[in-house]
Amino acid sequence: MPQWIAHIQQVIVGKQEVIEHLLVGMLASGHVLLEDVPGTGKTLLAKAMARSINGVFKRIQFTPDLLPSDLTGIYYFNQKSGEFEFRAGPVFSHILLADEINRATPRTQSALLECMEEGQISLEGHTHTLEQPFLVIATQNPVEQQGTFPLPEAQLDRFMLKTRMGYPDHEEAAQILKRFQQNQPLADLQPLLDHASLIHMQEQVRQVHVSDELIAYIVRIAEKTREHESIAIGVSPRGTQSLLRAAQALAFVKERNYVLPDDVKSLVLPVWAHRLVLSPQARMKHMSTERLLEQLLLEIEVPADHVASGTAG
């Protein structure tokens, strides 16, 4: 998988961890929430991922007047045929970029729930199955809050990971200017694999070995989040499944057929931090879910690597 990261880095300068997170989401059949300010390369990264799998990329700008049908599609009456026909919306793609998702109303946001969880949409008594692979990359601005609608817990829970692009450092910023001064690297990016190959890789990810000790480790961390006095709502069973599948995908990205404790530890924050709900007292103290999870990880004994890998190597 390092060649896939290098392939994306022909367009995106640096950002290996963010690219890894998107690969983990794609390989684990999960969705990714990118939180960052405009202009940091979120759209460009999504387009590069779609180009790499030779997939259909659709982008939709979320606004307060956006309707659910603008996402899913509509049935319209065709006067020539005399019948109602379905006109597919942008969700019928392989990678959907939901730009500034928190600017749409909760009703429109919820239109994505069935797509993200079931891989299908239901309209007018008909069920339409989305072509696989299907990945939603949603963005939201962490600074500007006027005119936004915070994502409800049910919506956040559908995102496998939440990650941030961040500003480039000095050297990366200089490389970006040089790289895009005369050329458009995305236009020259060639597909790395096709849809069938990606689906086969997703099946391989599910076969990556996870020891009983590591499964128990994931459960212990989740239980701690449910017992902590500063956390009102801890990690759900869906959250534990997401961490397990993400760890399998990360091990696959690192070309291993077994999961290590470090795989789990490195993904706890991006997979779980956005799912937790702090207590009112914790919010008044300006505590963060990231910091609480870091503290919990220090309190829980980590399985030894040789025990966690078992006989999978």
TrEMBL record:
<dbReference type="InterPro" id="IPR011703">
    <property type="entry name" value="ATPase_AAA-3"/>
</dbReference>
<dbReference type="InterPro" id="IPR027417">
    <property type="entry name" value="P-loop_NTPase"/>
</dbReference>
<dbReference type="Pfam" id="PF07726">
    <property type="entry name" value="AAA_3"/>
</dbReference>
<dbReference type="InterPro" id="IPR041628">
    <property type="entry name" value="ChlI/MoxR_AAA_lid"/>
</dbReference>
<feature type="domain" description="ChlI/MoxR AAA lid">
    <location>
        <begin position="224"/>
        <end position="295"/>
    </location>
</feature>
<dbReference type="Pfam" id="PF17863">
    <property type="entry name" value="AAA_lid_2"/>
</dbReference>
<dbReference type="InterPro" id="IPR050764">
    <property type="entry name" value="CbbQ/NirQ/NorQ/GpvN"/>
</dbReference>
<protein>
    <submittedName>
        <fullName>AAA family ATPase</fullName>
    </submittedName>
</protein>
<feature type="domain" description="ATPase AAA-3">
    <location>
        <begin position="31"/>
        <end position="161"/>
    </location>
</feature>
